[in-house]
Every structure is written in structure tokens, then in C-alpha cells.
Amino acid sequence: LAEKESGWHISAVNARAEQFGTFTIDGMARRMQEQAPVLSTLLGALLNSNPTRTQRQRQFSEEQVRSAVDPSAVEMDVTWGKEDEYWYAEQKAAQLKKRHRRAVERRDALLLIRRVVVTSILTFSTNQQCNALAAVMGMFFHSTSTPELVVEVFAHAGLSLSLTTVHKMVNSLSKSANNELRERAKTKILAFAYDNFDMDFKSWSPTIDNPRDTLKHATSALAFPLEHDVTPEDLECCIALWNTNRLNP
């Protein structure tokens, strides 16, 4: 799992956006099951090592479904008939079954995530370049402006890359996006949208060099390709637009 062939290696200086777009916990779990089935089974057993509790929860849910709700205990303005009682019990049982199914799916999903996290820590500790989950977590922390101290704690636990590595990865992705944008702009079938926005960088300790005026004004640009087989010739419409413009003298 820690080898490069596993596909879990993300280079900080050569990171690609596709590596983050195709990353999924389910994908890591499937690959772990294929390449290390014994380890996957072992972790699953350790993470759910109290079968009595699981069985008790399942029995409790099944008893709720079987018993449903006594219609006579519900206060209504009309008298219950046999058909009313039947449909009420059927509807309530269906709701409880759905709730039970969701609880089971949620518990299984949490166990799957924990199994992948433990495996990621083990492989990252074995090979520092096997860092798929740590890289994704590092980018998530960067995008959400997580405090550096928190990032360092997760990095020491093997759940994230260090701040220096995350910054290198961000710079690499920025350069890659910039180069791709330049190449796409050469095709002349790219549309641009601009937007002005304000950012308030709050300062807890204002100084002479850092006054209280923390409001900054900026402009963002969005470039997106034109779909539906648009060609550069289709965009040569300036003359036609000017001829139909009411401001044209």
C-alpha cells in the first residue's frame, strides 16, 4: 500500500488538480480491500470489537420496528377503525425501518472512514510520500483558514502534511492552473467574468504599521470555456452587434 504503484503518492512540487478531484474515501477503501484484504479485515474487526453492543443495537431497532406504535395511544378526534389501525401501523413500521437502515448505513460509513484513516496513518508513517489523505486534509485546512497550530497537531498525528509542504503544494497548483489558463486563452473560446469584492482582515492588536482599517478591495476574474462546439469564428460578431446597436450613428 505504501508503494508508488498504489496511487496514493501526491508530490508537493508537482501536484495536479486531478489528483484531488478523483480522491475518495470509498476508492481508498476498495483499493485497500484489494491490495491488503487481511489488514482491512483486521482493522474492521478491531474498530468493531464489541459485537454484543452491535447486536444489542440491532435487536433494539428490530423490536421498535416490530412493535411500531400502538394506535390507541395516539390522541385523535375520531375513532380508530381496523383499517386505520392497519395503515397507521404499516406507515409507522416503514418509517422505523427507514430510520434503522439509515442508522446502519451511517455506522458503516463511520467505520469505513476510520479504517481508511488508520491505514493512511500507517502507510504515511512507513513512506512519507504515501500522503494522499494527508495531502487532501492539508488542502482542506488551507481552504478553510484553519489555524496553523491546529494544522501542526494534525501533521504530527499523521493526518495532514506540514504547513511548509501545504504551501508548496498550493504554489504548485497555482502555477499549474495559471499555465493551463494561458493555454486555454490561446484558443480564443474562453469567456471571462469579473467581480469586485471586499475583504476585512481583522486585527486583534492594531499597531502603527497595522492600523484598524483592515478593509481591502479586490477584483476576481473567472474564466470558463465555451461549450457546445463553439469556434473562434462564431465569436466574430462585433460588426453585426454594432450594426444593430441603437447607439450606432
Task: Give me the number of helical elements.
Answer: 9
Give the ordered list of helices and strands. Answer: HHHHHHHHEEH
Mean pLDDT: 79
Q: Name the helicity range.
A: 55-70%
Q: Give the termini separation.
A: 72 Å
Total E-strand runs: 2
The main sheet comes to:
2 strands, antiparallel
Which term fits the overall shape?
extended
Low-confidence stretches: 68-81
Q: What structural class do helix, strand and pairing data support? A: mainly alpha
Strand ordering within the main sheet? 1-2
Radius of gyration: 29 Å
Indicate the proportion of strand residues.
5-15%
Task: Spell out the key features of this protein.
249 residues, mainly alpha, two-stranded antiparallel ribbon, 9 helices
Describe it for me?
- With 249 residues, the chain is mainly alpha-helical.
- 56% of the residues lie in helices and 9% in strands.
- Strands 1-2 form a two-stranded antiparallel ribbon.
- Helix 4 packs antiparallel against helix 5 and helix 6 crosses helix 8.
- The longest helix has 45 residues.
- The protein is extended, with a radius of gyration of 29 Å.
- The N and C termini lie far apart (72 Å).
- About 6% of the residues have low confidence.
